[in-house]
Amino acid sequence: QRRPELLNAFQENVYGTTLPAPTGTTYRDAGGNGSAKKVTITVTGPQGSASFTLRIFTPSSGKPKGTFLLIDHRGSVGDDPSSGGYAPASKITGAGYALAALNAEEVAPDDAGSYRDGVINAFYPAGQDLPADAGRTISAWAWGASRAMDYLQTDPDIDPSKVAVIGHSRGGKAALWAGAQDPRFPVVISNNSGSTGAKLARRDSAGESISAINSQFPHWFPETYKRYDSNADALPVDQNELLALIAPGRVVVASAADDGNADPQGEFLSYLGAAPVYELYGLGDTGLSSTSWPPATGEGFRGPGMSYHLRSGGHGLEDADWDIYLGSDLFTR
Asked: Are 66 and 160 in contact (CB under 8 A)?
């Protein structure tokens, strides 16, 4: 009973109404080099069609132990698997996993003037304002991750029961919203997602505030979210409930000790706040050795359905984060 109520509350007040299922979807495999391929996903709505790219890198031999679906908001993952610490394809495939990188900029440009130019205008008339409660960029990226999952379910090289949706920063906000809505993701990873991600909204004075994020990035969230600028206590939900909506799938919260803008303590408290719902599934063990802040840095804490780590340093998705993700056997209890 509570799950649909919470999802509706997040749609109405935070992330906006999600785009409907496309009336048609096609996949075009542009081929690739060995264990790398590029797939163009084309979706059709009542106002037209839009396309975006999914790049997939698999181990050179054997079926992947799992797949990390990265919401790549930087557009930095190209055909070359050498993508640095942010998306180290060679490191991921070398560990026996696959990387699927969704080009989020093609789904919805991260720009206040053009964010509708991807998938949104396939569903809303281009010459009309969006409804005040319609999802914007972050919601579109989450929707795009689900469309990528639609494709991964058809790919014979991928086990669709072992796909982790992952995002960093603004991509982490989208990953959490995707995982809360779409139970096909058994693992959902938030890396330094901060405000309107893993951070508790009611710690509005710590790190980036709702008012600041709505002012700087007016295209990320619906107009209805602006009602809570400097008024976070009036929200009918908080972000620990978003994490809890991922249950019984594994929720993974990763913070960085010096990432003050994302409020790592607020992310930690939100993680703890989701545990009572995981307990309803018999998965309430957070894996933490203590509930006191701060926990040890650089150590992965893993329970049966929840995982957490606090990395030293600042805002980023780094090799040290991937070392923990790849070494934590996230797809088992």
From this structure: no
For tokens 């914007």, the residue is: 136
pTM, two decimal places: 0.98
First to last CA, the chain: 26
Instruction: Tell me the three state secondary structure of residue 110.
Output: coil
Task: Report how far Cα 203 is from the mean position of its chain's Cα atoms.
Answer: 21
Q: What angle do CA 127, 132, 138 make, to 5 degrees?
A: 90
**Tens digit of each residue's pLDDT, the chain (333 residues):** 999 999 999 999 999 999 999 999 999 997 766 689 999 999 999 999 999 999 999 999 889 999 999 999 998 888 776 667 899 999 999 999 999 999 999 999 999 999 999 999 999 999 999 999 999 999 999 999 999 999 999 999 999 999 999 999 999 999 999 999 999 999 999 999 999 999 999 999 999 999 999 999 999 999 999 999 999 999 999 999 999 999 999 999 999 999 999 999 999 999 999 999 999 999 999 999 999 999 999 999 999 999 999 999 999 999 999 999 999 999 998
Question: 3-class DSSP state for residue 68?
Answer: strand
Task: Give the active site residues.
Answer: 169, 315
Kindly give the pairing relationship between strand 24-29 and strand 36-45.
antiparallel
Give the separation between CA 216 and CA 270, rounded to whole angstroms.
Answer: 24
